[in-house]
Amino acid sequence: MGYSDLLKDFYATIWVRGETDRIGDFFLADSEADGLFPDMAIRPEDFQAMVLAMSRLVEDIHVEILKTVEQDDWLSALVRAKCRARDTGEPLTLTGQAMLRFRDGKIAEAHNQFDLFGFFTQLGHLPEDALLRILSDETLD
User: Cα 110 from chain centroid?
Assistant: First the structure.
């Protein structure tokens, strides 16, 4: 199984089916994922809480891997997730990129950049004009 297939299996198992008890099947015990939260890397045991928190907000998750580049033990992937807001049923889209290093068939490190700002704006947790307001040096109260 190639690294792209492992990543597809990870998204299908953990995010789509919600089998968070299987996180250890995909990550080495000492691995870390950064870029999901500012100045904080998360470990495999933290991932379960993040997936459960997100599943309280959204449902009907579908993940597409749009492009990949593999080199040696690295995989870079452009990812798009589509889902629905759990409270309104509104469609949502989250896009981003992940760069992963594999060792022994599991993720050893992950560097992520996903548009969570845009995602939470779609969910209604941030005002539609939040980015413009911030760029205008206005604070969000």
Answer: 11
